[in-house]
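To whoever picks this up:

The parser on our side crashed when reading a file containing two proteins. I've narrowed it down to the boundary between the first structure block and the second sequence. Both blocks are reproduced below exactly, byte for byte. First block:
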Amino acid sequence: MRLILAVTAATILSACGGASVPASERAAVTAPAEDARVLAVMSFAEWCGSCKALDPKIEAVQQANSFDGVAFAKIDYTSRDADAFYADAETLGIGETMRATFGDKIKTGRLYLINLETGEVISTVDKSMDETAIVAAITDAAALS
């Protein structure tokens, strides 16, 4: 009986995202272009309802606009692997900023607009904002940097 319970618990935990996604299956993260002054980085997870609402808006904004000096990136937290999340943040040059922002409790479903020179989070974008407000937030962040 204990074995059945242990197997059932392991199966449930695995289905809930407790298992790590191998690095080969995660989206590759690359450093932003040298001319980027602002990094618009989304903390994303496939299981996140806020991500499912915000991601299409960000994609539409990116396709419809050109933002000088702004690079876009997404850090995948689907597997709930904090080490992998922070490794991707380091690759983007924002490891310290993300650690200071989240610590031990990584939150998903937001776009963080980060000054790449100072590491400061200029502002955040969330699912409640429409595309016009998102464009304004990114444009304002670029103007401040």
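<<boundary where parser fails>>
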Amino acid sequence: MIANHSQKSVIVNLLDLPLGTSAVVRGIRPVSPQDTIARRLGELGFVAGETVRLIVQGPFGADPLLVELGGTRFALRRAEAARIELEAGA
């Protein structure tokens, strides 16, 4: 997590995380009650308390995003990454 205990944390979207920065997953925000992508992200390990790091953004429209979660790297579309809420330092 970016913040230590003396700093306040803020809720950000994975799309707002600066390159090379880590933050802690707060949760997944589904876009509908039947959001299969949100469910799949949870199955892949994007769950509260896990640390995620934004490694690189694609060259065209910053799509896809390469992120690291628990030693595994994932390429996510911006629409997928937009569902992931993080706690980052203020």
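After patching the parser it read the second block fine. The chain has a mean pLDDT of 89. The first helix runs from residue 36 to 44.
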